[in-house]
Amino acid sequence: MSNNKINDHLDSMLSAIGIKTGRQNYTYHSAGDTYTGENLYGILQAPRGDATEAIVLVAAWQNIDGLLNRNGVALALTLMRYFKRWSLWSKDIIILIPPNSRTGTQAWVDAYHDAHDNQKVASLPLKSGALQVAVAIDYPSCQSFDGIHIIYDGINGQLPNLDLINSIVNVAGGQMGMRTAIQGMHSHDDSYRDRLKTIFRGMLKQGLGIGTGPHSSFIPYHVDAVTLVPYGEGWQDEMAMGRVIEGTFRSLNNLLEHLHQSFFFYLLMQRDRFVSIGTYLPSAMLLAANFTIMAISLWVKSGQSALLAKGEKLESSQSGIVAGCHAASTVPLSVFNGLDYPVSGILLSPPREELLSEVHACSGALLTLWQYSYFQPLLPFFVFAH
Questions:
Q1: How far is the CA of 279 from the CAs of 153, 234, 365, in angstroms?
Q2: Per the count of CB atoms within 10 A, which of 73, 105, 166, 196 is most buried?
């Protein structure tokens, strides 16, 4: 069945429950391929709102892996019918059903913010207010699941507000007793190894900057968005998934302003543990200062031909001293990790010892970074002074 015929059936279903619908055609040419399709969306107008803010519920026909999103589309339609019965909404709710998770969502978001090419992407016949949050459902399987995987990585390393992730974790874990996971770590045991793997996976995805789901198209427009993907085999079903989304939408419906109190720059080690920008930004600033000081030193040497002979030995001397600084930092690291820490004659419990081990590991890494950042730029002056 073609995309247009499918949208005809969905259009009649949404219109039957009193939701205004609209369609959008688009055509993209990328890497020698042509992507074309038709987006279908509907707007549930808030009984207690003035159409100035909206929340988006996304359910693409195909997920990011090309699988048919059977339960995702069915659950989204069911939720819209359920939401229509309530009179407590203060924000409009938009349901978006694109043919795929990449091009369809991108075309709709671009057109909603009037940032599209009219020759390739059609304008939207219906619009609501400013988009606050978007939640995408990726539920291709028909079996019961164990928990929900929260995908939050955006394009070019952009991230949603941390409060959105915290809200979903609290709704799923506190109200439903459901497990949640991030970065594909479905069996996270809160150990140092799993925290390290989680944070490295997040850094890798941010560094690559590619989209990881339909939510990635919203984040560049300052719309906090995530994708929810069930995982594992357990006793949770579509009803539990719907209740999590319902609780999330009710929480977002109570917002008086856009999410801004929490962090936009962070590295998650677990679903409820993170490293804020205030922790890792100083190291990046030290590295940036290193390049600046090195550039100044090279500029100072640029007109000194008499020191050219000594300058030829600079590169090898720098490499040896920097390597020595890195090697020296392992001494306090190994000493600190090998010590016992008695408190009133009682050794610390294993979790506390593990925490101290992490602290000392971070201290050793910071010591190495300080040595590298401060000694290397000054090496030219030490070499030329002698």
A1: 20, 38, 13
A2: 105
Residue 191 main-chain phi, psi, to 5 deg = -90, 165
The answer to whether 375 touches 322, Cβ cutoff 8 Å, is yes
User: Which parts of the chain fold into alpha helices (H)?
Assistant: 3-16, 70-84, 103-112, 162-170, 192-208, 238-253, 277-301, 308-312, 314-328, 330-337, 350-385
Q: Tell me whether residue 307 is exposed, middle or buried, using C-beta atoms within 10 angstroms of its C-beta: 0 to 12, 13 to 18, 19 or more.
A: middle
Whole-angstrom distance, CA of residue 189 vs CA of residue 269 = 11
Q: Does residue 18 fall inside a structural domain? A: yes
Q: Could you tell me if residue 130 is inside a domain?
A: yes
Q: Give the relative orientation of helices 70-84 and 238-253 as an angle to the nearest 10 degrees.
A: 50
Counting the structural domains of the chain, the total is: 1
Q: Which residue has the tokens 């549930």?
A: 44
Chain segment 144-195, per-residue pLDDT in tens? 898 999 999 988 888 999 989 989 999 998 878 889 999 888 888 888 888 8
Residue 169's domain is classified under what CATH number? Answer: 3.40.630.10
Domain membership flag for residue 123: yes
Quote the pTM value.
0.75
| Residue 349 DSSP symbol | P
What distances in angstroms separate CA 78 from CA 57, 67, 227, 250, one per listed residue?
Answer: 12, 21, 18, 16
Q: Is 345 left (phi over 0), alpha (psi -120 to 50) or beta?
A: left
Contact status, residue 123 vs residue 111, Cβ threshold 8 Å = yes
Q: What is the pLDDT of residue 164?
A: 92
In this structure, is residue 100 part of a structural domain? yes
Of 140, 141, 111, 105, the C-alpha closest to 125 is: 111
- What are the pLDDT digits (tens) for 285-319? 888 888 888 888 888 777 666 555 555 555 556 56
Match 């922790």 to its residue by tokens: 279
| Owning domain of residue 218 | 3-275
